[in-house]
C-alpha cells in the first residue's frame, strides 16, 4: 500500500505547476487552450472558404474530421507560440 502511494505521488508530481498557461482578459484568467480554440475556429473560416473555392472541399472524404483537426492544429500552435510561459 505504501509503495502504491509513493508511486502515485511521483506520477502526480509532474502535474504541479507554479502558474498555468493563461491569459489575463477582461479581469479574469483564461486558459491558453481556450483562446487558441477560439482563434482556430475564426481562422478556419477563411481556410474553408479557400478550400471550397479551389474545389478541394468536394474531394475530402471526412470533412468534419478534417476541419476539426485543422482547428486543433491551429489551437495547439497558438497555445505553443503565444503562451505566457
Automatic annotation (TrEMBL):
Its main location: membrane. The chain crosses the membrane at residues 32-52, 64-82. GO terms for cellular component: membrane. InterPro entries: YtcA. Keywords: Cell membrane, Lipoprotein, Membrane, Palmitate, Signal, Transmembrane, Transmembrane helix. It is found in: Membrane. Belongs to the YtcA family. This is Uncharacterized protein YtcA. It comes from Orrella marina.
Amino acid at each position: 500500500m505504501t509503495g502504491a502511494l509513493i508511486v502515485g505521488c511521483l506520477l502526480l508530481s509532474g502535474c504541479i505547476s507554479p502558474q498555468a498557461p493563461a491569459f489575463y482578459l477582461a479581469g479574469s484568467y483564461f486558459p491558453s487552450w481556450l483562446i487558441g480554440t477560439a482563434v482556430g475556429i475564426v481562422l478556419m473560416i477563411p481556410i474553408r472558404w479557400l478550400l471550397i473555392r479551389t474545389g478541394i472541399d468536394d474531394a475530402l472524404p471526412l470533412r468534419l474530421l478534417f476541419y476539426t483537426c485543422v482547428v486543433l492544429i491551429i489551437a495547439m500552435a497558438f497555445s505553443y507560440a503565444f503562451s505566457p510561459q
